[in-house]
Design a protein that fits this description.
The protein has 637 residues and is α+β, with helices and mostly antiparallel strands. Helices cover 40% and strands 21% of the residues. The chain has three domains: 204 residues, 2-Layer Sandwich (Heat Shock Protein 90); 163 residues, Ribosomal Protein S5, domain 2 (2-Layer Sandwich), CATH 3.30.230; 178 residues, Rossmann fold (3-Layer(aba) Sandwich). The strands form six sheets. Strands 1, 2, 3, 4, 5, 6, 7, 8 and 9 form a nine-stranded mixed sheet that branches. Strands 10-11-14-12-13 form a five-stranded mixed sheet, sandwiched between helices. It has a five-stranded mixed sheet with strand order 18-17-21-22-26, sandwiched between helices. Helix 10 packs parallel to helix 12 and helix 17 runs antiparallel to helix 22. It binds ligand TSJ.
């Protein structure tokens, strides 16, 4: 072996070993989400350089071979000699948690793995190359599975050229020994890059995908900032106010707030701290919400919307219909919670409250009509809330514990929830076949007809009055939650898997989207805990003169099959209803052979994308999902 290590490299190797031995500890998981994590960590370092004020452009490329390159026009990773006479670059890429030591800016600003660092990505990459352009020269270094792959002269990494520009270019290949066949999921990367662009209005991010069948090049630049993000979030909804935006600084904490009310019963508040999405919320949201409630109640009394005898609006009342983004920059944030995505710093609450108290009334005093619309939203919520208990009793009634409200559910025999599945099947005909085909011990069938109500548009009362939805709530057994109350208890869920089974056409995709929207709004834990799946029925069955029949899932697979087979009959399935019970079992229900797509929150968040994905207009992404989830399918036994 080459002697490329000095005395301190033993601990370095131990560190990298630890990362490779327990990758989940550092990046969460080793499926495509882990692969994407690597990308985010690298990109976040470039975003930090932007936040430090030295980088305006980041280019992200996914290459044909599955590697990636991230390039910025910042100052370039430092290459000068550092401790023990080794280039700073070496230390950065081989030492766990090296990041902070090199940060000259006052705070660690970006997100990702909260500074776990480029050395983790390096350790989990089959290879990584680093190019740093600084001081008129370009320097290059390379690694294999985190270990340096070239010798240094006097501790310096070699100069490979000259450049008037500065910047950093990192390429890496996620190690198949760690990630198996999993690869980057472009849709998630794109949505995250777009989000980063919204949060950094002077940054431009270029995304290039060179992978076969996915080729595209996109530029994200959002000079309107989070205001533009609110526009995107509220696209297609009826807005009852303009976009209310204000900013301020308190105790060294910068606060940006943007909000708008829509005519819905939804509350969507996204919080960020130093560009990190705080999925579990935290103090910045608490401060904003508390002050917002107080301000609205005080206006409501002033304007006579609430009379003396009336109770105050609840916080949830005042946020009914609100879409908001609260983004703060904190010099030393404290993250808590299960996934370290909850902001614990108490001074953040003080800051968002103070800035809101100072700025929001300035806008509302000037826009009285919008204020009145906001108070109407609160009033509607209060009315529903007051009727809610009564409504719930009336609508779900005593049938809450009886299993089926309209007799269509064919339940399974087992009461062992960990083994039970429920198929929600589009159409009575397919529902009938599914009932015949199923393993009745563990598989329940709930046929639904036509299109269930669109819960994004309908009001609470209507949603709860809908027969299909009532049946689902009753069947699942775990209640539901919504903006105005929370009865949901996932421990009561009667099925481990909720499997949506719809045709691979426009209508089928629409039904799936509506169902997912319903789960997302009213039982989000079902999705976040991984209980929701979509069955992927095949489009074709080939029956060759010799050899075994095969099921094909898209046109591309058929084209490929045609190349290697001549003499065969082809059966095309137009819909689930056309399959007999045996075919339905074999292709779509048998845990040994079926393909399931496990739904994740980010699939549902971009419902538009989901619809086109499910419709199969984009063949390649659909096939990727199927391949990705072929693993789930085989693990599904
Ligand atoms: F993750 C990573 F380390 F691999 C990485 C770092 C990846 C990418 C795409 C970019 C970067 C990066 C790091 N871009 N820019 C920098 N900047 C610095 O590391 C840097 C440069 C100069 C100074 C200074 O104080 O002079 C300080 C820093 C942190």
């Amino acid at each position: 072996m080459k002697e490329v290590y000095n005395a301190s490299s033993i601990t370095v190797l131990e560190g990298l070993e630890a990362v490779r031995r327990r990758p989940g500890m550092y990046i969460g998981s080793v499926d495509y989400r882990g692969v994407n994590h690597l990308m985010y960590e690298i990109v976040d370092n470039a975003v930090d350089e932007h936040l430090a004020g030295f980088c305006s452009r980041i280019e992200v490329t996914i290459h044909k071979d599955g590697s990636a390159t991230v390039k910025d026009n910042g100052r370039g990773v430092p290459v000068d000699l550092h401790e023990k006479g080794v280039s700073a670059e070496r230390v950065i890429f081989t030492t766990l948690h090296a990041g902070g030591k090199f940060d000259s800016n006052s705070y660690k600003v970006s997100g990702g793995l909260h500074g776990v660092g480029s050395s983790v990505v390096n350790a989990l990459s089959e290879w990584m190359t680093v190019k740093s352009s600084v001081g008129g020269a370009v320097y290059a270094d390379r690694y294999k599975r985190g270990e340096p792959d070239q010798e240094l002269e006097k501790g310096m990494i070699p100069m490979i050229g000259k450049s008037k520009k500065t910047g950093t270019e990192i390429s890496f290949f996620p190690d198949p020994e760690i990630f198996g066949h999993h690869s980057f999921k472009a849709s998630s990367i794109k949505s995250r890059l777009h989000q980063t662009a919204y949060l950094n209005p002077t940054l431009t991010i270029l995304f290039v995908n060179e992978r076969e069948g996915e080729q595209e090049s996109l530029e994200y630049h959002e000079p309107e900032g989070i205001r533009g993000y609110i526009k995107e979030l509220n696209q297609g909804k009826e807005c009852v106010t303009g976009i209310i935006a204000y900013s301020g600084k308190e105790d060294g904490i910068e606060v940006d707030v943007c909000l708008q009310f829509t005519r819905t019963f939804e509350e969507t508040i996204l919080g960020y701290c130093n560009n990190i999405y705080t999925a579990e919320g935290g103090m910045h949201l608490t401060g904003f919400k508390n002050r917002f409630t107080a301000i609205m109640n005080s206006y409501a009394r002033e304007l006579g919307v609430l009379k003396e005898k009336d109770e105050n609006f609840t916080g949830a009342d005042t946020r009914n219909g609100m879409t908001a983004i609260i983004s703060i920059r904190h010099p030393d944030p404290m993250f808590e919670g299960q996934t370290k995505t909850k902001l614990g710093s108490a001074d953040a609450a003080k800051a968002t409250a103070a800035v809101t108290a100072e700025q929001l009334p300035v806008y509302l005093d000037k826009n009285l009509d919008e204020l009145k619309e906001m108070l109407k939203c609160a009033t509607r919520s209060a009315t529903v809330r007051k009727n809610q208990l009564k409504n719930k009793e009336n609508l779900l009634g005593k049938s809450k514990y009886s299993f089926d409200s309209n007799g269509k559910l064919a339940n399974c025999e087992s009461r062992d929830a960990s083994k039970c599945e429920i198929f929600i099947v589009e159409g009575d005909s397919a529902g009938g076949s599914a009932k015949t085909a199923r393993n009745r011990r563990y598989q329940a069938i709930l046929p639904i007809r036509g299109k269930i109500l669109n819960v994004e548009k309908a009001s609470m009362d209507k949603v709860l009055a809908n027969a299909e939805i009532k049946t689902m709530i009753n069947a699942f057994g775990c209640g539901f939650s919504e903006g105005l109350g929370n009865d949901f208890d996932i421990s009561k869920l009667r099925y481990d898997k909720i499997i949506i089974m719809a045709d691979a056409d426009v209508d089928g995709a629409h039904i799936s989207t509506l169902l997912l929207t319903f789960f997302y709004r009213f039982m989000p834990e079902l999705i976040s805990e991984g209980h929701v799946y979509i069955a992927m029925p095949p489009l074709y069955k080939t029956i060759p003169a010799r050899g075994e029949a095969e099921y094909l899932y898209d046109d591309e697979a058929l084209a490929k099959y045609r190349k290697s087979h001549r003499n065969f009959k082809l059966q095309r399935y137009k819909g689930l209803g056309e399959m007999d019970a045996e075919q339905l079992w074999e292709t779509t229900m048998n845990p040994e052979t079926r393909l399931l797509k496990q739904i994740e929150i980010d699939d549902v968040q971009s419902a538009d994308q989901l619809t086109s994905l499910l419709m199969g207009t984009e063949v390649e992404p659909r096939r990727n999902y199927i391949q990705e989830n072929a693993v789930y399918a085989t693990l599904d036994v």
